[in-house]
Amino acid sequence: MTTPTPIGIHDLELATTHYVVTLDDLASHNGTDPAKYRLGLGQDQMSFPAPDEDIITMGAAAAAPLLERNGTEGIRTLIFATESGVDQSKAAGVSAHRLLGLPSDVRVVEFKQACYGGTAALQAAIGMVSRTPNERVLIISSDVARYELDSPGEPTQGAGAVAMLVSASPALLEIEPIAGLFTDDVDDFWRPNDSSTAVVDGALSVSAYLDALTGAWDNLQAQGGPALDEIDRLLYHQPFTKMAKKGQAHLAAYVGSELDVTLPGEAASGGRDTGLALGTLYNRRLGNTYTASLFAGLASLLHQDDSLEGKRIGLFSYGSGSVSEFITATVQPGYFDSSRAARFYAELDARVPLDIDHYRELHATELSSATDVVTPRVSTSQYRFAGISGQARQYERVDQAA
Ligand code: HMG
To answer: Is the pLDDT of residue 402 over 60?
Structure first.
């Protein structure tokens, strides 16, 4: 019997927005103790798009360095996962495909199921590569998380994109074949077609997430997946980083295990270190990136922990509504690149701080497809949302040398 070829994540990149809102500023604007955001939610900042940015510009910006490193040969599928889609019919990935200069013999499609869409894309990609192992699949998970101004969800907004290349014999992570699944029809969070902001029942969303975690865990066990003490690191979907801590505490109590639940800035809790804190460092500065959030956590861990070769990581993906999945993966030899964390921290540091008045003004701006508009050039990204013409969104690739 031959051993099946490993399939998984060969390379991964992140991108975020031009602007950043500091949660201390938001707290002082609305009279909240800043510790509520820093410690109560585990968030310091949230990325916010400039008028010429959206899920497509962020997605292309994440994918571009990945394609530069790996080329485009064998990429015959692009899956764009998002829950903040910009069109009801055309896949956002089709615009990204042109911006990235991909060849025409690529199938492009959009996946949606709240924050779970990126994980669904990963499983679909693995299926495709197992059928045609010489092909590679490009996944772009990109989202802008928006709640109403002055709502409890407001400090949990954010924006960002993760691009992943899925292939046989991957350089970063082999995804193991056994997965735990859990679907439950629940109205915890959704975005109606006529609303640009999400509707959420905050308390229900937290309990639905925790129920889904144990549901997916039980299914992983029923399918013959690894026991908790056979998983070295654990990552969770992070709508705000305190949610990962809640998830970790919930799973530890459920399984009867002692796991460390310390986030940065907190007194050490004791228990086995599963990389909880390291996996939250990017997210606490990005905010919620919906479909990209779990994979931004993965990048944060892989970029900053150099001891993971051969180790197993558990990843819990939750998408409100709700669909969730618990997958496991093994880290490949040579995965660590010490320059990656420095590069992404430089990108986070380079964001332009947005004062609260300006942020509120941008938040309240709604574009209508009925009105032609040319967006001002604000972002320094190579990819721009240039405006609306004849009801169609326009995108351009900026020649940075110009
Ligand atoms: P809230 O009204 O701010 O909640 O809403 P709170 O008053 O309970 O405070 C939050 C925490 O801050 C509490 O800690 C307080 O004790 C603490 P906890 O009890 O949770 O451990 N706190 C303080 N800590 C230190 N110093 C202080 C202080 N004051 C209070 N002075 C909520 C919070 C998350 C509900 C709200 O922000 C919200 O609705 N967010 C959006 C929904 C969300 O993120 N849900 C998470 C689960 S659902 C999910 O993950 C899916 C999602 O990503 C969407 C998708 O799948 O597409 C959202």
So the answer is: no
Residues 335, 116, 244: CA angle, nearest 5 degrees: 70
115 CB less than 6 Å from ligand 1? yes
pLDDT score of 140 more than 90: yes
The kind and range of the H/E element at 265 are: none
List the structure tokens of 261. 């639940």
- Average pLDDT for residues 294-300, to the nearest whole number? 98
Instruction: Look at residue 161 in the predicted model and tell me its pLDDT.
Output: 98
Closest atom, ligand 1, to C-alpha of 322: 56
Model-level pTM? 0.97
Q: Is the pLDDT of residue 2 over 80?
A: no
Q: Is residue 1 scored above 70 in pLDDT?
A: no
Ligand 1 center to 170 CA (angstroms): 37
Pocket probe mutation, ligand 1, options 142, 156, 190, 291, max atoms within 8 Å of Cβ: 156
Q: How far apart are the CA of 37 and the centre of ligand 1, in A?
A: 9
Q: What is the SS3 assignment for 262? A: coil
Within this chain, domains 7-172+340-400 and 174-333 share the same CATH topology: yes
Q: Whose CA is nearest to atom 14 of ligand 1?
A: 40
Query: Residue ranges per domain, the chain?
Result: 7-172+340-400, 174-333
Measured distance CA(179)–CA(123) in Å, rounded: 10
Residue that the structure tokens 């558990």 belong to: 314
Strand residues in 63-131 grouped as ranges (E): 75-81, 107-111
Strand pairing report for 19-22 and 45-48: antiparallel
Identify whether the C-beta of residue 159 lies closer than 8 Å to the C-beta of residue 48: yes
- Architecture in CATH for domain 7-172+340-400: 3-Layer(aba) Sandwich (3.40)
Task: Tell the residue nearest (CA) to atom 2 of ligand 1.
Answer: 152
Does the pLDDT at position 400 exceed 70? no
How far is the centre of ligand 1, averaged over its atoms, from the C-alpha of 322 (Å)? 18
CATH superfamily of this structure's domain 174-333: Thiolase/Chalcone synthase (3.40.47.10)
Q: Whose CA is nearest to atom 17 of ligand 1?
A: 40
pLDDT at 362 over 50: yes
Position 399 confidence tier, pLDDT thresholds 50, 70, 90:
confident
Tell me: pLDDT of 401 over 60.
no
For ligand 1, whether the C-beta of 202 sits within 6 Å is: yes
